[in-house]
Amino acid sequence: MPTPPARSADFVQSLERGLAVIKAFDANDAALTLSDVARKTGLTRAAARRFLHTLEQLGYVRSDGRLFSLRPRVLELGYAYLSGQTLPEVAHPHMEQYTARVHESTSISVLDGDDVIYIARVEAKRIMRVAITVGTRLPAYATSMGRVLLAHAPEAWLDDYLARVELVQATPQTVATQAELAAVLAQVRAEGYALVDQELEIGLRSLAVPIHAPSGQTVAAMNTSTDARRGTPQDVLTELLPVLRETAAAIEADLHVNA
């Protein structure tokens, strides 16, 4: 077995162990017991308990008393990198190609608390009724990208979100109850896309799909917005969903290359 590289005097072993605890959670082990974390990281139960308690206090981990799971806030550890350079830079040429092809605007956002925040956008050459720029924040429940991100959030966090979210009726078509929203999110999770029809503003229809990191984790969502007069919701799915998915797949492929 090769000898591990020597560590400098400035190496912080506690940071290494804390990151190991976070990395213990993955697609196959989204919820872990204290014993599971200790086993996967090689830490003692006492050490694993301290790290989990610290991460819980910081908002990165949630516990129901027996099982631990990551909160979406842990994605902030990667957002600075993704939103600062990699994701917007990689995505922008593909977004421009999408907009040139279908003549509709497209955006990418990430989940920040209970809102989505836009980190990239390409405008179509037409008047849009909603003024959106990079940095715009909107409530996740009423947006297509927000619903994609909510649908792929950890189950425990999503349960807590559904229990506390206040649903403001932006239009008569806005989702009205937590039960209705939960059903919509289950459908989004099953179908792999979200279509929001005039729930944020009358006349505005949007369609979103997830963007996955090389690890397979949903780290962002990409949408396209269109005038509701363009056609029926089914027309949007038929005309735009295949192209939107193709564009998201191209972005993911480039993220893999840059990983």
Counted by DSSP, the helix tally is 8
Q: Work out the strand percent.
A: 15-25%
Helix-and-strand structural type: alpha+beta
The biggest beta sheet is recorded as: 6 strands, antiparallel
Distance N terminus to C terminus? 27 Å
Helix content: 40-55%
User: What is the β-strand count?
Assistant: 9
Order of helices and strands: HEHHEEHEEEHHHEEEH
pLDDT under 50 segments (min length 5)? Answer: none
The whole-angstrom Rg is 20 Å
Average pLDDT figure: 86
Going across the biggest sheet, name each strand in turn: 6-5-4-9-8-7
Choose one word for the global shape.
globular
Task: Explain how this protein is built.
By secondary structure, the chain is of the alpha+beta class. 45% of the residues lie in helices and 20% in strands. The protein has helices at 13-23, 34-41, 45-57, 76-102, 144-151, 155-164, 178-191, 233-258, and strands spanning 31-33, 61-63, 67-70, 105-112, 115-122, 137-139, 194-197, 204-212, 218-227. The strands form two sheets. It has a six-stranded antiparallel sheet, with helices on both faces. A three-stranded antiparallel sheet has the order 1-3-2. Helix 2 (34-41) packs across helix 3 (45-57), helix 4 (76-102) packs across helix 8 (233-258) and helix 5 crosses helix 7 (178-191). The chain is globular and about 60 Å long. The mean pLDDT is 86.
Short description:
With 259 residues, the chain is an alpha+beta fold. 45% of the residues lie in helices and 20% in strands. The strands form two sheets. Strands 6-5-4-9-8-7 form a six-stranded antiparallel beta sheet, with helices on both faces.
